[in-house]
Amino acid sequence: MKDELLKKFEEVFGEADKAKVYFAPGRVNLIGEHTDYNGGHVFPCALTIGTYGAARKRDDNILRFYSLNFEEAGVIESSLDDLKPSKEAGWTNYPKGVMWAFKEKGYDVPVGMDLVLYGTIPNGSGLSSSASLEVLTGFILRDFFGTEVTNQELALIGQYSENNYNGCNCGIMDQFAVAMGKKDSAIFLDTSDLSFEYANINLPDAKIVITNSKVKHSLVDSAYNKRRSACEMALSELQTVCDIKGLGDLTCEEFEANKAIIKDDERRVRAKHAVYENQRTIDAVAALKENDIETFGKLMNASHISLRDDYEVSCEEIDILVDLAWTVPGVIGSRITGGGFGGCTVSIVKNESVEDFKRVVTEGYKEKTGNDCEIYVVDIGDGPVIL
Fold first, then answer.
1. Pairing verdict, β 344-350 and 195-200
2. Torsion over CA: 343, 347, 351, 353 (sign)
3. What is the C-alpha separation between 212 and 296, in angstroms, rounded?
4. Which residues of 244-268 are buried (b: 16+ CB within 10 A; e: fewer)?
5. DSSP secondary structure, 37-78, as one string
6. Rg (alpha carbons) of the chain, rounded to whole number
7. Residues 6 or more apart in contact with residue 201 via CB below 8 angstroms
8. What are the DSSP calls for 165-219, one per residue?
9. Catalytic residue among 36, 114, 174, 249, which?
10. Are the beta carbons of 332 and 206 closer than 8 angstroms?
11. Domains, the chain, with CATH or none
12. The pTM is what?
């Protein structure tokens, strides 16, 4: 990929010998959905698919962007003097948002850059193409200008830019998983204080399989922010009787004892998901440490049911994919992954059942929706690197 990207850089901007090539991964969350902005636990891992960038420093304030995924757009030009989000800027709002966030945090971005990108994450799939691009941009800026920021700080800067520049009120999980990824390990992250541990994903008899519904979503324009707002309101109500900072501080038993204080039925089930999903995530990681993959799978299934019924972030196509997966012998667990409203499912499938899974899910999805899905058997990779 490095050689192809430098060749395209030469075609578009010339003098590729002065460019460097970088990579930041995508991520998939195994369990712990919509818990990250509720002070709960998440369990994502970085993937070997992600975003590649060939970048070169300029000696002026000009920013020139080109994406192999959106070649019809050509070169999109901007400036460090004009770091304001706009619809016309399209995908370049993400790297520009990180540059803006660097400046907001007091880090110098003295000159512009030329950047050619190629993403291997399907757009709109829920595998964090935006977080991948944000972390990649921060990683490039750190390398260019010697900025003293850790990978964890790059994740926080990426989240800050998405919240405050791009208008999506996301939690920290996506950027953290991308920036802190470790091969063959998932990250058990407590989002209330960013304490974390790496948990080895030892699946000698199974594979992680992602199925893309090909239904695209945009979290900025979706009901994502409404879900977060409902949880914040429920938290405020619970705080009148409970000494908690986030919904993730509650056990399921404590929630049940105090849920009547939440006056609105919808807010109550949204909060219920956040509390119970947090406990499922804690239990799932404990099961994994005991090599009890069957229990892990059952908790994945329960997670999907909660996301479908209580949090209502699934959709017909995703539910079809999960229902089909559940019919295949050898499927240990399957659920929606990512913010929701489309995107992908993640399944753990026994090695001998992977081909059956592909056939049943592909044929069944086509029959029920008239659409094609895409299936990827994935590997867990590292965080950002210079290639």
1. unpaired
2. negative
3. 22
4. eebbbbbeeeebeebbeebeeeebb
5. GGT-EE-EEEEEEEEEEEEEE-SSSEEEEEEGGGGGG--EEE
6. 21
7. 45, 184, 185, 186, 208, 288, 380
8. TS-----SHHHHHHHT-BTTEEEEEETTTTEEEEEE---TTEEEEEEE------G
9. 174
10. yes
11. 2-200 (3.30.230.10), 206-378 (3.30.70.890)
12. 0.92
* pLDDT of amino acid 220: 47
What are the residue ranges in the chain where pLDDT is below 50? 220
> What are the structure tokens assigned to 55, written together?
């970048």
Cβ within 8 Å of residue 68, ≥6 positions away = 8, 116, 117, 118
The structure tokens listed for 90 are 């399209």
Question: What pLDDT is stored for residue 124 in this prediction?
Answer: 66
Here the tokens at position 66 are 């080109």
For 14-59, write each residue's pLDDT tens digit.
989 999 999 999 999 999 999 999 999 999 999 999 999 999 999 9
Structure tokens at 360: 């049943």
Distances (CA, A) of 211 to 98, 137, 182, 215, 325: 30, 28, 22, 11, 10
Average pLDDT, the chain: 94
Instruction: Tell me how far apart the alpha carbons of residues 127 and 187 are, in angstroms, rounded to a whole number.
Output: 15
- 207 — phi, psi (to 5°)? -125, 155
Residue found under tokens 């409404």: 226
Q: Please confirm, yes or no, whether 174 is among the known catalytic residues.
A: yes
Taking the alpha carbons at both ends of the chain, their separation in whole angstroms is 9
Quick one: tokens of 125?
């799939």
Q: 195-200 and 113-119: which strand pairing?
A: unpaired
Rounded to 5 degrees, φ, ψ at 370 are 80, 0
Cα separation, 379 vs 202, whole angstroms: 12
Token readout for 302 is: 């329960």
Return the pLDDT at 129.
87
Tell me which residue has tokens 């520009």. Answer: 96
pLDDT single digits (tens) 116-134: 999 998 776 777 789 999 9
Distance CA 257, CA 150 (A): 41
